[in-house]
Amino acid sequence: MERTFTKVANWVAHIAGLPLTFAGCCLIVVVWAVSGPLFGFSDTWQLVINTGTTIITFLMVFLIQNTQNRDGAAIQAKLDELIRVSKGHNHFIGIEHLTESEVEEIRDKCERAARRHDEKIAAMAAKKAVTQKRTPKKRAA
Questions:
Q1: Does residue 9 contact residue 67 with C-beta atoms inside 8 Å?
Q2: Which end of the chain, N or C, is less packed with Cβ atoms under 10 Å?
Q3: DSSP class of residue 38?
Q4: What is the pLDDT of residues 14-37, one digit of tens each?
Q5: What's the alpha-carbon Rg for the chain, to the nearest Å?
Q6: What is the pLDDT of residue 52?
């Protein structure tokens, strides 16, 4: 059941994102609008488009959310594996399970560390530039 649902969710998400699908939906709305005078802009005429769009929207929310959840989990697993096999800090693995404030705290620490690193690199570059200015250049004969 889960595999079938996954296949259907992927297929629907793919089809829903195609330009042809959007064009088809626009055509349906235009045909509905043009048919208004034919049906006297009745309550039933309005109910048809309202019911149709509500049902489709309701179902699409769950299918697209399922697809996004799986994509997010797959990306997270890939990032965790890259961290695990690299020189990155393994304590970052699994932080997606923390609360929003805990993740924000980690993000702030990372940003501060990056700024310190950038400042250190800039200071080293400035020191190197000053050293090179003071050293006399040799002239080619």
A1: yes
A2: C
A3: G
A4: 899 999 999 999 999 999 999 999
A5: 29
A6: 94
